[in-house]
Structure formats: C-alpha cells, structure tokens
Amino acid sequence: MARRASLHLSQAPEADRLLSTNPLALLIGMVLDQQVPLEWAFQAPHELQRRLGRPLDAGNLAAMAPDELVEVFCRRPALHRFPAANAARVQALCRLVVERHGGRAERVWTTAADATALAANVRALPGFGDQKARIFVALLGKQLGVQPPGWREASAPFGEPGTTMSVADIVGPESLAAVRQAKKERKAAARAAAAPPA
Asked: What is the spatial distance between Cα 169 and Cα 149, in angstroms, rounded to a whole number?
C-alpha cells in the first residue's frame, strides 16, 4: 500500500513538496535525472509548473504543441542540459501515462499486482532504462511504501536496506552527500578496473 511521504530529493522545500504530492512531478524528475546534478533534475518539475502557470497534468502536457513545450524547457535557465531532447522525452512520458494509465501517473504503481508487473510498468516509461527502473522501484519501496511481493528482487541491488547507492536512499542532506560519495567511488573503481596494466 502506498503512503504519503515527504521526499527530499531536490533539497528545495517547495520542489520537494511537489515531488511528494504529485506523482507526475516525481516521474518527470526521474526522467530528467541524467547528465545533470540530481538536485537540478528534481527541482525542474516545480520550475516547469511555475513556467506553465498551472498544475502539472499528463493530459495537458501530452496535448501541448511540441515546439511550445521545447520553448518552455529552453527558457533560461534551461530545465536540463539537453532541454529539447528532454522536453520530447517528458511529453512522450505524459502521452504514455494518458494512453496506458488514464492520465494518472500513480497508476504506474498502484495498479501493479506484483513486483513483476510494477517493474514492467516502470520499464515501459520513456526515459527509464533497466537501471533507472530498478532505482525507481527501490524508491517506491523504500520511501513510498509500495512493496508488492518481490519488490526488493525487482529493484536489486538498489532496494537493499542500508545502502547509499541511489536517489532511493536520499532522505536529507547527509544521505545525499553519502550517495554522491558512493557514486564517485564506484566511478573511480570502474575507471581503475578498465585501465590497462602498467
């Protein structure tokens, strides 16, 4: 059963309040969480809503003229390092939410009978590869109480308790710093493993 949670992904109170109360905002933040600092990605839904002058709604975003949405994303400061591509990705996300989930973003997880269905629903979303899907399932389980049977396996290794691996583990500034440090260490280890022997 899902529960109302106070998310702390953007580290900005108003943006985090929106992420905590609007499931579409949370999905948009996840889509944008690549190639930019994660705080920027998760603040973007709030700024998008401010620029639009109305609450984020999948039907409205899906129906916008693509060029109009691109213009909103490109206004300075741009909502992403690659604003046009991500405006298209967000619009594709909203169209899928409308077509498959009746315009209700939360139905991506509330209608899933088990972890297999949940993972399939998330992987079908534009902008969600396998790793991002696992991270989002872990976030749902750890912070929103969405825990169908098998959710830890479906989100492995990100669903394991006590980790500092992803946004699923961020509950405040200290955990954000720990996640960032762990990512840095993993990248350094991967570079070292890939380097040719001296």
From this structure: 20
